[in-house]
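Good morning,

Attaching, inline, the backbone tokens for the sequence recovery test we're adding to the shared suite. The designed sequence is right after.
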């Protein structure tokens, strides 16, 4: 058992802020593609398809990013378990930032033909590869520095990053949508958020340049030679359970932020600006409440909150789809808000939960691969399946049924996972009581 060096709150605050900022930048890169896929990539890169088929094709390239994420977890997890968490943060940010800027430079189908969507596919794959390494590095560096009694709180800061990245990405699109004509936005406006990723990446690299390596990694005497092999040999059941458990979080998030955006603008005639505002407002609330829920995880445990959030998601999917189908902004916002609250009840604590499930020598690989396999199950398929199911003029109850089914699968997986809140924290609370 290695001794973990304690870190004073000011040091933790700087570390958590740097992790949050970097995660926000990487998720900005990832989310801006999803927004573009919902709004413009179909007609620009798949013009020979029907509108629905073009959207499906754009979402297919979107899904490639999720397929790449577990591969990125394997690649960067190996680096993180063998050479340290800190190098992962630098290389993953460089890769994702460069790929995102390049997406903004790809000519459309009209200019270079089929090469355009192929390039889009390759760059999306590279985006996913980088993001697959980002989460594990950022979360582990924070979690392994944090004191046990507040590990959930400090680990939740990187989990705020996706909300910040999403709001930043969609805020840029919202401003462009409000100030440019449809023709201007389709011609060049959609590229601006991708180019901005270059500036953000440089800022992120500067923030991360002074981070210290994880004390738990430095305390490992015998590093795993092939971390993935050890995870598959000794933790395969845990890997499958964590992937299945996290699938609903991804499914809910991307049903709200990606599929509903395309569905409402294309099928219900809701303006792009209204939809972006409704979704962004719900995501802002989610981001603000993340550390609050994480504190509850430190107080009551990780697993109970995950079970509550998963149950809430299962119960809310049909009401959410019904509210979305009204096309009324306030009702749609309500549907999205409750869905985001269910989501964050689970995902605010998983940044502490997953690292605690795996031993330190294979933690970067195990936690990151499990997390990103959940993304394949829940995030990659949801926009595609939901778009295919939501045909005709009726309320798309099939989408609600699909999401509810994933929620029940995840609930079963969470039920089979153990609690991980440190024993000494529980014992101290019992003594104090």
């Amino acid at each position: 058992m290695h001794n973990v060096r304690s870190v004073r709150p000011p040091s933790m605050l700087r570390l958590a802020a740097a992790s949050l900022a970097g995660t926000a930048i990487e998720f900005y890169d990832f989310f801006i593609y999803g927004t573009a896929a919902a709004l413009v990539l179909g007609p620009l890169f798949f013009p020979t398809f029907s509108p629905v088929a073009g959207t499906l094709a754009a979402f297919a390239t979107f899904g490639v990013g999720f397929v790449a994420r577990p591969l990125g977890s394997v690649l960067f997890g190996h680096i993180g378990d063998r050479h340290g968490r800190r190098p992962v943060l630098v290389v993953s940010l460089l890769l994702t930032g460069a790929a995102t800027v390049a997406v903004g430079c790809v000519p459309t189908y009209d200019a270079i033909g089929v090469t355009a969507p192929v390039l889009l596919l390759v760059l999306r794959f590279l985006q996913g590869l980088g993001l697959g390494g980002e989460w594990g590095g950022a979360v582990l560096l924070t979690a392994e520095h944090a004191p046990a009694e507040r590990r959930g709180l400090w680990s939740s800061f990187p989990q705020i990053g996706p909300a910040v990245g999403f709001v930043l990405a969609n805020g840029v699109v919202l401003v462009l949508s409000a100030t440019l004509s449809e023709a201007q936005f389709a011609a060049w406006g959609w590229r601006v958020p991708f180019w901005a990723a270059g500036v953000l990446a440089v800022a992120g690299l500067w923030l991360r340049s002074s981070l210290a390596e994880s004390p738990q990694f430095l305390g490992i005497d015998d590093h795993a030679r092939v971390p993935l092999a050890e995870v598959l040999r000794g933790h395969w059941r845990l890997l499958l359970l964590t992937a299945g458990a996290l699938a609903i979080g991804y499914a809910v998030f991307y049903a709200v932020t990606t599929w509903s955006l395309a569905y409402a603008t294309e099928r219900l005639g809701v303006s792009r600006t209204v939809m972006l505002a409704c979704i962004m407002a719900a995501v802002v609330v989610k981001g603000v409440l993340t550390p609050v829920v994480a504190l509850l995880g430190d107080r009551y445990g990780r697993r109970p909150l995950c079970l509550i959030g998963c149950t809430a998601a299962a119960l809310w999917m049909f009401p959410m789809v019904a509210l979305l189908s009204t096309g009324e902004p306030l009702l749609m916002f309500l549907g999205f808000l409750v869905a985001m609250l269910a989501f964050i009840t689970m995902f605010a604590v998983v940044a502490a939960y997953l690292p605690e499930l795996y031993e330190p020598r294979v933690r970067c690989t195990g936690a990151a691969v499990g997390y990103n396999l959940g993304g394949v199950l829940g995030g990659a398929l949801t926009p595609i399946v939901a778009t295919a199911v939501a045909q005709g003029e009726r309320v798309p109850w099939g989408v609600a049924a699909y999401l509810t089914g994933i929620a029940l699968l995840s609930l079963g997986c969470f039920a089979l996972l153990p609690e991980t809140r440190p024993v000494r924290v529980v014992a101290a609370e019992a003594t104090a009581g």
